[in-house]
Amino acid sequence: MGKDDAVDDAIDEGMRLVEQLASAGHLDRLFIDGEWVLPLGHGRAAVVDPSTEETIAEIARGNAQDVDEAVIAARRAFAGWSVSSPQDRAALLDRVHSLILERAELFAQAISLEMGAAISTARGAQVPMAAEHIRVARDLAGSYPFLTHREGVAIMREAIGVCALITPWNWPLYQITAKVGPALAAGCTVVLKPSELSPLSALLFAQVLHDAGIPAGVFNLVNGSGLEVGAALSAHPDVDMISITGSNRAGILVAQAAAPTVKRVAQELGGKSPNLILPDADFPRAVAAGVAAGFRNVGQSCSAPTRMIVPRERLAEVERIACEAVSAIVVGDPRSPQTTHGPVANRAQFNRVQEMIDAGIAEGARLVCGGPGRPQGLERGFYARPTIFSDVHTRMRIAQEEIFGPVLAIIPYDSVDEAVEIANDTVYGLGAHVQGRDLAAARAVAARIRSGQVHINNPPWNPHAPFGGYKHSGNGREYGVEGLQEYLETKSILGWQGEPN
Ligand code: NAD
Which of 147, 312, 390, 487 has a 20 to 30 A CA-CA distance from 334? Predict the structure, then answer.
């Protein structure tokens, strides 16, 4: 099958998916108390295909009253779900996991359509990694010690309550499962508000939960805007915890709105992650892998290593290897199997990337590949050119601000101490990479970096590795045991006596 045939087939599949969601009535509905219901709000939100800039669907937006309905349902369901056996919760999550894998192609099409991920990325990373969060939550539900004993005290870890979960568009399903999986495993009930820009995969996910037999009210989906639905959830007096993954702007607003009701607030926010290449690193591998990681998902990952910190005397070599790595990137129609990188996800993001490329040029950073505008031959769609600046100074905006697009800053250093200082010199502290042959030295550098996760020499992704931010990158941890514990309260019972059970 030729490239154009593959694209035509994929366009048909995308249209079929939207028709399927429309004919099921899901585009017009919210999922509350175990049923697809028409919202009380009357607003609609356009879903725009970033590769064509065309509206491909409209979804119904809920409002604050819909939030009330969902929270009431979640509160009612909490009484039973929170005391259900962890094995029953594991069994439910097992069914959810199987259904996601069964419907993997549908999810991949939805994600590619709603946020522009190359279909190969959607199939190879977005969906399988999302499923992994459910698998890990399933395993933890069955194995986590919810009751332990210490020095005569019984320590009970129990579900915190009704959780509101707010997610972004960049890894739409993955961000949802990273929250919903552990929340359900812990015994919490949830109200999910996905990004209004990427709601299709979330609608499919709600149907998966329905088909897996989730009890009414345990999982609820309220689509809508951050300002309306997100704000109502944050301030709601009967929500016990709110977890948001998104921008610092939204994360701060959520925390402010949540404060008067003293709910727990978990924030997974922005990043400007360093990739510190030590002098003894294997440069061809380290630089090429660093470019791949920085531009993964078109740079739209909160922990993307977008600051490559390299020995000054190796600058020319690094630039050469980095540009070679960029030449292997194929920016194009996300439906084409040849495409490695699709468009950025939306117009605001496209404008932001252009603004920051212009800022880099204006501040005197040296452009070594890419630049403003769209790649040649792509006149329509939110396509950006993979762009690398070198000789970047740590005070420049492109070294400090999260861009969330395919823009890499190469920053030279003169000593390892200076490199560590540069690595820590932003308000963020989410991810980090260290590259070097001497593992003891690399570990020592990793220990000095102020961030929630450090990767030494590009290890594979691991869903058990806790993930979250130092400094302005957020509060709390997701993934693995720590991700489950976010959704638990600790109760100590003195005078328990008797045997542990
Ligand atoms: P965003 O902040 O615009 O939106 C994220 C979510 O928050 C959406 O569902 C949105 O509707 C909601 N929201 C917006 N304003 C709100 C408000 N006032 N009250 C409640 N909810 C509100 O972010 P985005 O553009 O969707 O995503 C990009 C950002 O997310 C980047 O800054 C990125 O770094 C961050 N991010 C962080 C992580 C992480 O794990 N730390 C992961 C992915 C993305």
Answer: 390
Q: Are 491 and 156 in contact, with CB atoms under 8 Å apart?
A: yes
Assign 435 to helix, strand or coil.
strand
| Encoded tokens for 491 | 């109760």
Q: Which residues contact 225 (CB under 8 A, 6 or more apart)?
A: 43, 45, 61, 196
Distance from Cα 192 to the centre of ligand 1, integer Å: 13
348 bridge partner residues: none
Fold annotation for 9-269+476-491: Aldehyde Dehydrogenase; Chain A, domain 1 (3.40.605)
- Regarding the beta carbon of 348 and ligand 1, being less than 6 Å apart is answered no
Mean pLDDT, to the nearest integer, of 66-74?
A: 98
- For ligand 1, whether the C-beta of 343 sits within 6 Å is no
Which of these, 48, 45, 43, lies nearest to 58 by C-alpha position?
Answer: 45
Q: Is 253 in the pocket of ligand 1 (CB under 6 A)?
A: yes
Q: What is the DSSP string of 376-424?
A: TT--SSS----EEEES--TTSHHHHS---SSEEEEEEESSHHHHHHHHT
Instruction: Write down the catalytic residue from 268, 319, 402, 486.
Output: 268
Encode pLDDT of 263-299 as tens digits: 999 999 999 999 999 999 999 999 999 999 999 999 9
For tokens 């542990």, the residue is: 500
Q: Would you say 347 and 450 are in contact if contact means Cβ atoms under 8 Å apart?
A: no
**163 catalytic per annotation:** no
CA 75-77-81 angle, 5° bins:
120
Query: 91-144: per-residue pLDDT in tens?
Result: 999 999 999 999 999 999 999 999 999 999 999 999 999 999 999 999 999 999
Q: In sequence order, what are the residues at sequence separation of 6 or more whose Cβ sits closer than 8 angstroms to the Cβ of residue 157?
A: 144, 145, 146, 147, 148, 485, 488, 489, 490, 491
One DSSP character per residue, 315-353 reads: HHHHHHHHHHHHHT--BS-TTSTT-SB---SSHHHHHHH
Instruction: Identify whether 158 is a catalytic site residue.
Output: no
Q: Which of 321, 340, 311, 333 is nearest to 435 (CA)?
A: 311
Structural domain spans, the chain:
9-269+476-491, 274-469
CA distance linking residue 290 with residue 305, whole number of Å: 7
Sign of CA dihedral 180, 186, 187, 188: negative
147-150 and 189-193 strand pairing:
unpaired
For residue 269, give the nearest of 245, 294, 241 by alpha carbon: 245
Q: What is the pTM of this model?
A: 0.97
Structure tokens, 43:
């607003």
Beta bridge partners, 265, equal 242
For residues 184 and 218, the answer to whether their CB atoms sit within 8 Å is yes
Which fold would CATH assign to domain 274-469? Aldehyde Dehydrogenase; Chain A, domain 2 (3.40.309)
Residue 422's nearest CA partner among 402, 455, 399 is 399
